[in-house]
Amino acid sequence: MILKQYYLGCLAHASYLIADERTKKAVVVDPQRDIEQYLHDAQAGGYSIQYVILTHFHADFLAGHIELRNRAGARIVMGARAEAEFDFQGVKDGDRIDLGDVRLQMLETPGHTPEGLSVLVFDLTKSDTLPQAVLTGDTLFIGDVGRPDLLASIGVTADELADMLFHSLQKLRDLPDSTLVYPANGAGSMCGKNLSKETVSTIGEQKQFNYALQPMSLDDFKRLVTADQPEAPEYFVYDAIKNRQERPDLATTLQTSLQALSLDDVTRLKNQGAQLVDVREAADFEGAHLAGSINIGLKGKYATWCGSILSHDQPIVVIADPGSEEEAVMRLGRIGFDNVSGYLREGMQALDSHPESIRTIPRITAQALSDRLAESDPPFVLDVRSEKEWQAGHVVGSHNIPLTHLRERLAEVPADRPVVVHCEGGYRSAIASSLLSTAGRSNLQDLVGGIKAWGASKLPTESAGTEAPVCATSCKI
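The structure corresponding to this sequence follows.
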């Protein structure tokens, strides 16, 4: 038996290839939309991908089931409660897919979504009663469980889903302790609140260490799993719906999205309402960028922040260093943002003879900001981290507006006063600064290194509820 995990760090997403070495039949579970790695590995091993299994309708990315159906001829398999536009094989508890010496047995585990499915994996050369592994989708994570409150499931309430989740977890608890646990997400995913950095565990370890698998009443469980969940990105509901639909595959959309555009073309599209996203690093963007563009760097949680900041129904134009355009467009495609009109040909070099179209955002060091704050007319310090992060420790006198709410709360940022923006390390503050710039704010500075640099300089912070500043190095930030 071959069981290979593919982990996509930028989306904290895990997918799987399971193959039978004797029959050369294979299955892919919860694939990402760009499927070349599965096709490559199947070809290298001589495997034929017979099925593609979705454990549920994912909200955090657009899955590659349509792509594998179109390219490999794979049959789509989902839980029997799934409702989709495309043809699929619905499965219930106990249904099997036999590949030869490998057996996949289905376990319905609703809770994160109504159609939630887990997949028991048996190596029949070892045992036909003891599963080697269970692929748990977003029902059971390492250290956590799938949140029931995403509201991505039409017609089902979070309370109903929490009831389902409680009973689904009992099914998983009953599996042998030695069963390997392979989830669909890891640390950094917004599909839960306490996901581990580990990508594989066992049922026994999870029964011992996972807070949600401890003995408790249904009411206590519901209170526990719904408390302190992170705010879900804007695009989650959109992707959950897109994953149900028959749609063009990624290769088709890339043919229209990967168009090199002149500066005149980009300007025309911008004037027609297109969104300009500059994917370079913050220092490069703030040093010089095309007026009206938003910075969301490729070297970060690019797709997640694009899904939170950009609109999926307005055209997008990418501005990138030459050679990075395809990656930028493809990663937008991973979350179903197929509304890319193209990219700026030659990147920022296209503006060499158009200095009037270039804008900059000054940067400021932690010590320089500290000196400014001691003056009689200090700047307005805008902290765009989450409220929880801000409460744990922040620059004395700073104002907190989480990045995801900046546009709607723009009026809270003074227009007649210098503004210094910061986050934890500089990624989110660059996005925020670009949003403020596109809104017409010009008296801006971005704090280099964010609150980390502030703490490293041993400058004072305060926590929510404290009466006096404390040393930044002692704050949990």
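The chain has three domains: 2-239, 248-359, 363-474.
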